[in-house]
Design goal:
6-stranded mixed beta barrel, single chain, alpha+beta
């Protein structure tokens, strides 16, 4: 407010440098991100669906330039559905998506090419008009996909450019080529998708510390709605998995001790002979330990080789039915640091088990072992 009047210093923007700082703050938790920027276009021999006050001047549509159209909220919320073709991806150039209604009206299909030019919706004495009279920028684009609008509740008072059927999704470069956007400067919403929603609050706190973004003119909206609905199920599953892991580890250690005990006791004769010929006890224990470690290493390697190809399948089986999301974390993704820690712990457990099991025999003298054998 300025002296009781609403005033504006222009549309708030965010630049590429600030986006990169956000990406750096999110770090490895970032799955992907999407930029959006809106503008208007006219097309050669392209007739948009008529809205309120339709005329030749207002025959234009809205363009939403994006990195990845599949990450736009309309598609994530399943308000729009791609029915033919493919979504726009970050590497695409001169590609657009159009609505099914607009495609039918102009007899267009995937693969067709149309020429677009810049436009700007305005009003002159109550009549909708194009404020860019002299056209100086043109771009030929290819239709990459056609989407369907579900439950269309368009307002009849909307001008042609504002009708939902006249919305085009384009690659992020189109509006730059049409001189409606500056390279690296964005006025629309920017979405960041993180792998694990448990880190969402921490990420927001770190992002708000970025000084290059004017937080008086920008808002951070968090959306963990889908996660919050299944969080309790995931936490319950996590507790069950942790409990099963602990129980399995304890039982595994007990079974290992029993097997090694029986195995070493079955080798009393071998131990007695080795001691009788003067072999040190440490060397005998070392031999038992070496054999156990070789078997452990082979078993660990084999289990890893079997597990790696099945990671994605197991993760989808356990979590996809719950999360129903296209962007989420692979909770079973191998972490080689944790693999190394697990191997060290298992090796330590094996080492202790061999010492305990060998102690009962090696505490005896050779003659006592041979007596027990007889």
């Amino acid at each position: 407010m300025d002296n009781g009047q609403v005033s504006s210093k222009g549309t708030p923007t965010i630049d590429e440098q600030s986006i990169q700082r956000v990406i750096s703050a999110v770090g490895k938790e970032l799955k992907c991100y999407n930029t959006e920027h809106s503008g208007y276009v006219k097309g050669e021999n392209l007739t948009f669906l008529a809205g309120a006050g339709h005329n030749e001047e207002s025959n234009m549509g809205t363009v939403k330039a994006v990195r990845d159209s599949s990450l736009c909220q309309n598609f994530l919320d399943e308000e729009y559905e791609l029915i033919v073709g493919e979504h726009i991806r970050p590497e695409d150039k001169d590609k657009i998506l159009i609505s099914e209604a607009l495609a039918k009206q102009n007899h267009l299909s995937v693969g067709d090419r149309i020429t677009l030019t810049h436009a700007k919706l305005g009003s002159d004495k109550g009549v909708y008009t194009d404020l860019i009279k002299e056209k100086s920028a043109y771009e030929t684009v290819e239709i990459k996909g056609i989407y369907q609008i579900k439950n269309n509740s368009d307002n009849a008072l909307n001008p042609t450019a504002k009708k939902v059927e006249n919305l085009l999704f384009s690659d992020s470069q189109l509006l730059i080529n049409l001189k409606e956007q500056t390279q690296g400067i964005y006025e629309g919403e920017i979405s960041f998708f993180i792998a694990d929603p448990l880190h969402l609050d921490k990420m927001v706190t770190e992002i708000k510390d970025i000084a290059s973004i004017d937080w008086k003119n920008h808002i951070v909206n968090t959306n963990d709605f889908k996660y919050s609905k299944i969080a309790e199920q995931l936490q319950s599953m996590q507790k069950v998995v942790i409990t099963l892991t602990i129980i399995t580890s304890i039982l595994g250690l007990v079974v290992l001790m029993l097997i090694l005990t029986l195995r070493i006791r079955g080798r009393i004769q071998e131990a007695g002979i080795l001691l009788a010929i003067g072999k040190p006890k440490q060397q005998i224990i070392g031999q038992f330990l070496l054999e156990a470690m070789i078997l452990l290493s082979l078993g660990f390697l084999l289990s890893t080789i079997i597990f790696l190809p099945l990671v994605d399948t197991f993760n989808s089986f356990l979590f996809d039915s719950i999360t129903k999301a296209t962007v989420h974390k692979n909770y079973l993704q191998p972490d080689f640091l944790h693999f190394a820690i697990l191997f060290v712990l298992e090796s330590l457990g094996t080492f202790v088990t061999v010492l305990v099991c060998s102690g009962a025999i090696l505490s005896l003298k050779p003659k006592e072992i041979l007596t027990k054998m007889s």
